[in-house]
Automatic annotation (TrEMBL):
Stated name of the protein: FAD-dependent oxidoreductase
Keyword tRNA-binding part of the UniProt annotation: no
Database matches in SUPFAM superfamilies: FAD/NAD(P)-binding domain
Keyword Transport belongs to the record: no
GO MF annotation terms: 4 iron, 4 sulfur cluster binding; metal ion binding; oxidoreductase activity
Organism: Jiangella aurantiaca
Keywords, in A-Z order: 4Fe-4S, Iron, Iron-sulfur, Metal-binding, Oxidoreductase
Length: 763
């Protein structure tokens, strides 16, 4: 029994929390920043104003999380984000291959709650800040309406991952809303006024077939005239969820303060669309459908962007410029939407694709005004045009991981965020990120503390590509089809393929490559041959091109489209091998800075077979030395050790000339960085990637010191307490998740005194 006497006023209960880093915003960016920082050993308070984590990826909005892989519709091979972002995507596919948005929430909450260094405050909104005498943020006040508690949060470092930049706004940091003119940065893709200067917001809906007739009475506020939407004929009962991303509105309004107005307009549209589908009489299949879910908050694309130490722009992305402080990658197209959204006469989106992935600089993550403020998510320092690419969630998540690691280094060294731009400190930040699996294009992990660098590597066998068996389906050349091959420098090997021919025809074969060894836009033709073929099955095509390869790189053996020919394929899948089809071309438009890009993209499993072929001489790109080459995914070469197909007991051995003390072992496996792991709606053919090592054991000398079963993740860390003392470590691969030969990208070992910032004793 509580009986409180009347009083003239009361205050909310107040709790105070101190930390090394306060992260405001619990979308994928804030979540990844918090986890990375916590694993690096610093105390984090994560403040989220919603009941779940994930932001636009959560069950409240239900947009699929994507980044550079872009549904595998582009030339960004093996580009899926690494680190914590990779963990989240891989774990979600394992638990949730059907794409249930509610289960995405559980994956994110599990990841955060597993970190003892994180204090999580859900349903808690930041409402004010205090600043110190230097103009830095001293504390944040936040309020939770669910438990009527006010929180006073203090720390030396703060990260704004709130989406609208609430922390930077309250602290007075410079920001922008809208599109820069072409003149400011020379960005030719800057939109004209009729297209608008802001991207709008979207609300999604799900329907469900209940197997019996369902009537629908629309609310009074539903849009009455569906024909006011120029694309109203595009609505069907078969399309729902985030495939209707173009139900978008609000780009002409203030996308911060008018969010409630925008939400109501989107609700009107959604219920008007459903009324059209149910009651227009044009969709008899809708009779048994019910409206299962409608979003309660809009998925927001754009509002404030804050000014950092550098503002990323169109040229950085399209030209794939090098940055000395590169800390992450991006690869989504520059994807601008008309401000009028669903009511626009323009197409729903306007894309400019670069040739491949680009670097994101650390300077774009540090406020130029507030000395202890990091910028994360869609508010980072980019132009409106560049923002149209960096805004997507998996890219935001990977970029924010750099903030988490940077905060740990700042805490350890007692320096400000801007001080990490200094070359030696930046090299340390990049090294720590690469250790955790971060993908930074064209950066190799140079790790002086890795004991494997000073060891001799050997393996039970190594895969040699001399032939791939002819045991797959024959695939028609209704579009051009190419096999990517990692070839060494020197003369191109001779190749032989088998084809079925319907009528006498001429088959054109082109050898192609990209502008760089790690460029997968194959518009450089190295050589061609034409073959006059008679009708008949199982004909051999021998390709012998006198072509010199300048340096190790991927080349495309392209069979150009021919409706009379089908090429034989194989069931064999190997890490770093993939076939691709020509799916279209982005033509050059110099006036807007759009380059010509031919798209050669893979087919998703269970399709996407490699070509059955023979090579002379064989390709030996899967050697055990790759385990210490500093790359943990395919780039210009596979960068993996792969066992021979017939090796029944694949293993890798690391030998030192004298015993070493080992406290930690890092292993990196192949979870297929080419696979776009959309979190919701899309669905995936496997729970675990077929290339991934499932079961393995580690031996020090002849003694088993660790054994793991059921692994489905990219990175495994084994901690040894007490440390091992041995001159030989052997990793025995016991099983993978598919029929592919065993593959490993990295083996790294560390002495007891070395605990890299990404080290986690939980791993």
């Amino acid at each position: 029994m509580v009986a409180a006497p009347a009083t003239d006023h009361r205050e909310f209960r107040t709790e105070q929390h101190g930390a090394d880093l306060v992260v405001v915003g619990g979308g994928l960016a804030g979540t990844c920043a918090a986890i990375t920082a916590a694993r690096a050993g610093i105390r984090v308070v994560l403040v989220q104003d919603r009941p779940v984590l994930g932001g636009n990826a959560s069950s409240e909005v239900r947009l699929w999380a994507l980044g550079a892989t872009a549904h595998m519709f582009n030339n960004n091979r093996w580009s899926r984000e690494g680190g914590v972002m990779d963990e989240i995507m891989v774990e979600n596919v394992y638990r949730n291959p059907e794409g249930n948005a509610v289960l995405v929430d559980t994956v994110l909450l599990d990841k955060v709650m597993a970190e003892p260094n994180i204090t999580l405050l859900l349903n808690t909104a930041a409402i004010s800040v205090t600043k110190d005498g230097d103009g830095d943020i001293a504390s944040v006040t936040a309020f939770n309406s669910q438990n009527s508690t006010r929180y006073e949060l203090s720390a030396p470092l703060f990260c704004d991952a709130s989406g609208d930049g609430v922390l930077g706004f309250l602290a007075g940091a410079a920001f922008r809303m809208g599109a820069e003119s072409t003149d400011e940065f020379g960005e030719l893709f800057a939109p004209e006024e009729s297209y608008g200067s802001l991207l709008g917001q979207s609300i999604y809906f799900y329907s469900k077939d209940v197997g019996a007739p369902v009537e629908f009475t629309p609310p009074d506020y539903a849009l009455a005239d569906i024909t006011t939407i120029p694309r109203w004929r595009s609505f069907t009962t078969k399309v729902q969820g985030c495939r209707l991303w173009w139900i978008e509105y609000g780009g002409r309004l203030d996308t911060v303060h008018d969010t409630e107005t925008i939400k109501w307009e989107l609700w009107k549209v959604v219920y008007g669309v459903w009324n059209h589908l149910k009651n227009s009489g044009q969709f008899p299949e809708a009779e048994t459908l019910t409206l299962e879910w409608v979003g309660l908050i809009p998925g927001k694309r754009e509002s404030r962007r804050f000014e950092g130490l550098y503002m990323l722009r169109q040229q950085d992305l399209v030209e794939q410029r090098e940055h000395h402080d590169a800390i992450a990658s991006g690869g989504w197209s520059i994807d601008l939407h008309p401000a009028d959204g669903v009511f626009s006469e323009h197409p729903g989106s306007h894309h400019l694709h670069a040739r491949g992935v680009y670097q994101v600089p650390y300077r774009s993550l540090v406020s130029r005004d507030i000395g202890n403020l990091f910028l994360a998510g869609r508010i980072i320092s980019v132009s409106h045009v560049a923002f149209a690419s960096t805004r997507v969630m998996a890219t935001c998540g990977q970029i924010a991981q750099a903030i988490g690691m940077a905060a740990a280094l700042c805490t350890r060294q007692g320096v400000a965020p801007a001080d990490l731009v200094e070359p030696a400190r930046m090299s340390e930040l990049q090294r720590e990120l690469l250790r955790t699996g971060q993908h930074i294009p064209r950066l190799r992990l140079d790790d002086p503390d890795d004991l494997v660098r000073h060891a001799e590597l050997s393996a039970s066998s190594s895969f040699v590509l001399s032939s791939l068996p002819d045991d797959g389906p024959a695939v028609a050349l209704d579009t051009s089809l190419a096999q990517l091959l990692p070839v060494p420098a020197g003369r191109l090997p001779q190749l032989a393929l088998s084809v079925d021919v319907a009528t006498p025809t001429t088959l054109r074969v082109e050898l192609r490559s990209g502008a760089r060894p790690d460029d997968y836009t194959p518009d450089v033709v190295l050589g061609t041959r034409e073959f006059d073929l008679e009708a008949g099955p199982d004909q051999q095509v021998k390709i012998d091109l006198d072509v010199e390869i300048d340096e190790p790189r991927y080349v495309f053996v392209a069979l150009m489209a021919n409706d009379d020919v089908a090429v034989h394929t194989t069931q064999t899948r190997i890490s770093g091998l993939v076939s691709v089809r020509h799916t279209g071309t982005q033509e050059s438009e110099p006036g807007i800075g759009r380059p010509r890009v031919e798209f050669w993209t893979p087919e998703r499993r269970p399709g996407g077979h490699n070509l059955a072929l023979t090579l002379d001489p064989p390709i030996t790109a899967w050697k055990v030395e790759n385990l210490a080459n500093g790359f943990a995914r395919p780039t210009a070469q596979p960068n993996a050790w792969v066992a021979a197909a017939g090796d029944d007991a694949p293993s890798v051995t690391v030998r030192w000339p004298a015993p070493r003390r080992i406290a930690r072992l890092d292993l990196a496996f192949d979870t297929d960085f080419d696979h776009a792991m959309e979190t919701v709606l899309w669905g995936h053919p496997e729970r675990a990637m077929p290339f991934c090592v499932r079961d393995y054991r580690v031996r020090a000398g002849d003694t088993v010191v660790a054994e793991r079963t059921g692994n489905h993740h990219t990175r495994n860390t084994l901690a040894f307490d007490p440390p091992l003392e041995t001159d030989r470590l052997t990793i025995d691969i016991l099983a993978t998740h598919g029929d592919a030969p065993a593959a490993v990208f990295e083996v790294r070992a560390y002495a007891p005194a070395i605990h890299p910032a990404g080290w986690s004793s939980r791993s």
